[in-house]
Design a protein that fits this description.
The chain is mostly helical and 91 residues long. Helices cover 73% and strands 0% of the residues. The protein starts with 5 loop residues before the first helix and ends with a helix.
């Protein structure tokens, strides 16, 4: 009859406890992975929607009109800006 010392008992106890935890984690892993993937997919979707919607929301309206043009140079006639805008729109 072998007598188990305290150290051997502790090692055996820790191994049994670790095997229980490993079995539980292995059983829970597929559900955890599914939830993690779903969460990451949702976050990526939200980021994509924001990446597309932000420039659209911040851009000036295509139907909006601009009544004034400002320039820090003096001596430039308004008609020159009208001609420039017309040329840019027609090109």
């Amino acid at each position: 009859m072998d007598i188990m010392n305290d150290r051997d008992f502790e090692q055996l106890w820790e191994r049994a406890e670790a095997e229980g935890h490993a079995a539980r984690l292995t059983a829970e892993y597929p559900d955890w992975r599914h939830k993690t993937r779903r969460t990451l997919s949702m976050a990526a979707g939200v980021a994509l929607v924001l990446a597309v919607a932000t420039p659209i929301a911040l851009s000036p309206s295509a139907t909006g009109s601009y009544n004034k043009v400002y320039c820090n140079r003096t001596g430039i006639q308004d008609q020159q800006w009208v001609d420039l805008a017309d040329e840019l729109l027609m090109s």
